[in-house]
Amino acid sequence: FGGIVHAWLPNLTATPGAYATIGIGAFLAASTHAPMTAIFLLVEMTGNYMIIVPVMLTAIVGTVTTNKFYSDSIDTVDFTREGINIHEGREVAILRSIRVGKAISEDVDFISETANINNLLDLFAIANDSLYFPVVDHEGKMVGVVSMQDVKTILHDEAKRCCHLVGAICSRDVITLTPDHNLFDAMQLFDVKGIEEIPVVETMEEQWVVGKLKRRDVISVYNHEVLKRGISEKAEDIRLLCSSS
User: Fold this and answer.
1) Where in the chain is the domain with CATH 3.10.580.10?
2) CA–CA separation, 54 vs 62, rounded Å?
């Protein structure tokens, strides 16, 4: 479409590549139901602020259209296939009844903010299952998280890897949960933010990391709870049947 329009009105329209870029933004917004994420990513990727208005229009139209015909985003469709409805109904009640503390993994690797990038790479080599690591200060409190995405710009520079500290490159704006939050709150964060893991801290004020909550662990705990409740309900039906006979 962009090629045809540009060939027809070359002085009034953008190049075909611009149309493709806007289309990517519309597709991303529609599939994730997150138009702001699509807008920010496209602007960040291209560095061209002139595309903000067309990306905003296509992202909003794409999101509104998909919301009208399909309630699940690409992040929630797997839960629907698993029989988990995070929007309403019995599933929500079950998720709200389970605390995060019941589903967390307490086996969490940390790294000090004063460690260098080589130390971080060694930790990534050992812990293959981790997408990121909590970064802690000298008191052991979490001050941020660091992932391979944060080190990609200096990954092949030996000198920078030795002198750069983890605390200088880690992300300080971290989404966290506490053991007292429920799994419904956690699932909403997974859905909205498009992430797979969330660090769990003792309290929002005291950022001592007590574990890590993974999306797959939420599904596992939910399935176990559904099975347990199903067995309990069946046992109650049998008891009532026996008592009435």
Assistant:
1) 79-224
2) 12
